[in-house]
Specification:
Layout (H helix, E strand, L loop, with lengths): L1 E5 L2 H23 L2 E5 L6 H9 L8 E5 L1 E3 L10 H8 L9 E3 L7 H12 L6 E4 L22 E5 L2 H9 L12 E5 L1 H5 L3 E6 L5 H9 L17 E6 L12
Parallel strand pairs: 1-10, 2-3, 2-6, 3-5, 6-9, 9-10
Antiparallel strand pairs: 4-8, 7-8
Helix pairs in contact: 1-2
Length: 248
């Protein structure tokens, strides 16, 4: 596991986006295609901005999987992660080989099964993820399920997770935040060949410290990334402020 700390979110995003581009190009050069996972939310703004600006990526050879989505939220809602990925990624690159977006308006269990069957045929080369204020990885809130083999799950969102979504400005009130989501499982994320974890902002500082310095535990879902053989944490000074000097 590598930890990189930058002055601000913009520098963090540029470095993370460039690293992801290198790994995607390498996968295409090695096998003729690349399979990637993309996260959403404010933590990914700068990383995705850099990634879509990168040259030399043969996007028609790339298949993209979506990390998580709210259940029951229409794609027209500003908080829709399908909407987010279309507007911040898909519309800025040439047509992809495939884009496996999560339809939160479909039957959630059937949708989880559909996506699970698809990702099972596409070993992931590069996964872009973040960490929630409660330490969640995707929408796997604590205590996260580290054992299930299901690639996608129907999950309940805890109060801190829902509060984060409201405070970030995606919803008009806390009552508007959905209670459930479809989320990629922890084990499926960990199957990725490379993981890039982008985490800016002071409000994530405690979650970052728990993820990197606590023992691996489902009480700190993102702590599982300590066990990944090729995971890079991209932090800014604010999100890294609680780390001990030995960690960085």
């Amino acid at each position: 596991m590598d930890i990189h700390v930058f002055a601000n979110a913009q520098e963090l995003g540029r470095a993370a986006g460039k690293k992801a581009a290198v790994q995607i190009r390498e996968a295409i050069d090695r096998q003729g295609f690349a399979n990637i996972i993309l996260a959403t939310g404010t933590s990914q703004f700068e990383t995705l901005r850099q990634l879509v600006a990168e040259e030399g990526i043969d996007w028609p050879k790339v298949s993209m999987f979506h990390l998580d989505e709210y259940i029951g939220l229409p794609i027209t809602h500003q908080a829709s992660f399908r909407k987010y990925l279309k507007e911040r990624f898909i519309e800025h690159v040439p047509p992809l080989k495939a884009a496996y977006l999560i339809n939160g308006e479909a039957d959630p269990h059937a949708e989880a099964e559909r996506l699970g069957a698809s990702i099972g045929q596409h070993p992931i080369d590069v996964a872009l993820v973040g960490i929630g204020e409660n330490g969640h990885l995707a929408f796997n809130d604590p205590p996260a399920d580290f054992d299930t083999e299901k690639p996608y799950l129907v999950v309940n969102l805890d109060a801190p997770c829902r509060a984060q979504q409201f405070h970030e400005g995606w919803f008009a009130s806390i009552d508007d935040v959905p209670l459930q989501a479809i989320s990629m499982s922890v084990k499926q994320i960990m199957k990725s060949k490379h993981i890039i974890c982008s985490v800016p902002d002071a409000r994530k500082a405690q979650a970052v410290k728990n993820s990197l310095e606590q023992e691996v535990s489902n009480r700190y879902p993102a702590s599982i990334l300590q066990q990944h053989p090729s995971c890079g944490f991209f932090l800014d000074n604010e999100s890294a402020q609680l780390l001990s000097k030995s960690s960085v």
